[in-house]
Design a protein that fits this description.
- The chain is an alpha+beta fold and 154 residues long.
- A seven-stranded antiparallel β-sheet has the order 1-8-9-2-7-5-4. A two-stranded antiparallel sheet has the order 3-6.
- 32% of the residues lie in helices and 37% in strands.
- The chain contains four helices and nine strands, in the order βαβαβββββαββα.
Length: 154
Amino acid sequence: MAEGAGTKLITQNRKARHDYLIEDTVEAGIQLMGTEVKSCRDGKANLADSYAAVQDDEIWLMQCHINPYSHGNRANHDPLRPRKLLLHRGEIDKLKAAVTQDGRTLVPLRLYFKHGLAKAEIAIAKGKKTYDKRQSIAKRDAERSMQREMGRRR
């Protein structure tokens, strides 16, 4: 999904595309506290070790680190608290069914603001094996060298 007008990227999980084979993506709203929103606007979020989990027919974003707001008071938020993802019932059922299949998991790819609302892009993903990672690295290197060679010939 490309960034368009009215979209501001907060953070993205670059390692997810390396570690997982992305099958499908879903856009979800995030339920945030006031100081979390302010901290996200400053770009102080990290998706490195985060994942999404299904609990009681709801989807939760786990281990997403949002730094406490620098000008917050004693009512500041817990940086690693679980955050509820806002989805339609049909989307939740689809994600729940996908996770029950073998080796599938829900991985957040990026956090962003879209028209002032905090959103998360969640992917249904399957873990890559080490040889798959090596293959994708070799393929990427071959494409780069091909582009370099094409540039030299012009």
